[in-house]
Amino acid sequence: MASQSSNGDVKDLSLAKEGVNRIEWAEREMPVVRIIRERLAREKPFAGLRMAACLHVTTETANLALALKEGGADVVVCASNPLSTQDDVAAALVAEYGIPTFSIKGEDDATYYRHISAALDHRPQITLDDGADLVNIMHRERSELLTDIVGGTEETTTGVVRLKAMANEGQLRYPIIAVNEAETKHFFDNRYGTGQSTLDGITRATNILWAGRRVVVYGYGWCGRGVASRAKGMGSHVIVTEINPVRALEAVMDGFTVMSGVEAAKVGELFITITGGLHAIGREQLEVMPDGAILANSGHFNVEIDIQALEELSSGNRKVREYVQEYQMNDGRKIYLLAEGRLINLAAAEGHPSAVMDMSFANQALCVEYLVKNHGKLEPGVYDVPIETDAEVGRLKLASMGIYIDTLTPEQVRYQNTWSEGT
Ligand code: ADE
């Protein structure tokens, strides 16, 4: 029932009402975005500006898109991953909110890129990315669009890494704010959001018991820390692999067993990649994993598990449950790959809970506003979220929880600023 036009390309418009109900449900958990949306609706700082958001098409993203639209923007949305779209949300955006949306869950790679291209046909002046695909394609294939550009935002660690590589090579042609770098983003979204949603996705896909299971977590960045701590909380025996010695040490002192990938592969049962890098699980590890091993990825791209090696080491595969593919290994073992190695939390579950996306997307909306206010003043490059924005999001979130904190007295401020007072 898909129908592509400049209004969008979604799976089934009849899902729109269901989408609205779920978008409104998420909104109840997003008080900070709501406060910002209400202000933007009054002030209209984005009047007439064209924006394209290449984000996971979820109930939370819908609330961000609505905030931008109420601020006066002319917004279009496309997916930042072929498997993460919630089709009812995409339908609601098109049919109920008038936001052109190009995304269908399970779309093939050609459709995925056609949808990004459709979003770029909108000639955005602001881009919002989760993985830097809009920026990337705009620079490589649609450079005529760079003349009108005001700026962009980037949601995720992987995207920030890509953008910094572009900037270091002198290739980045407009200012982009790395939303991921805000403390109110990565301390919470990456850690508690990924922690909870990864376990949620694996549980929905497999219905496994976590208690007593040997779980290997690849990578101990903010996301890995979250996944490891939540798996531990569920009673799993958690092993961490990490290539950065300081992070590995932190994992040891957080109480985890730390091993090399190959050693971990011999003893683990459930393997979760969250490194942001290539082939965290490679051939050497696939060769020694036990029969029945389950593999899941929660990193942005589907490159963390070497699927080609898995195919080469196996004689065939079959779907045994939604999101579970059983590989018959040549040596008789069976290995289970979840969600084609794509991010399990968005493919098999609904991504991070709304309450944590509230902070990430509050940062997004405020950073877009900052870019608009500072149009013409920012050189091309990757920028941190302004410190005041981070603090404001923290304050608003605390207030929404009914928590108010102390401030320093003038005397305490003076003490902090002197160096001569001691015992
Ligand atoms: N990334 C992780 N979880 C998400 C969600 N619920 N919505 C949008 N992007 C996400």
Please report which band the strand proportion falls in: under 5%, 5-15%, 15-25%, 25-35%, 35-45% or over 45%: 15-25%
Number of strands: 16
As for the CATH topology of the largest domain, it is Rossmann fold
Number of domains: 2
The chain-level mean pLDDT equals 97
Bound molecules: adenine
CATH homologous superfamily assignment of the largest domain: Adenosylhomocysteinase-like
Radius of gyration: 22 Å
Biggest sheet, open or closed, and with what strands and sense? 8 strands, parallel
- CATH level 1 class label of the largest domain: Alpha Beta
Walk me through what this model shows.
The chain is of the alpha/beta class and 423 residues long. The protein has two domains: 8-185 and 352-400, Rossmann fold (3-Layer(aba) Sandwich), CATH 3.40.50; 194-347, Rossmann fold. Helices cover 45% and strands 17% of the residues. It has 17 helices and 16 strands. It has an eight-stranded parallel beta sheet, with helices on both faces. Helix 2 (31-43) runs parallel beside helix 15. The longest helix has 24 residues, at 183-206. It is globular and about 65 Å long. The relative contact order is 0.13. The mean pLDDT is 97. Adenine binds next to helix 3.
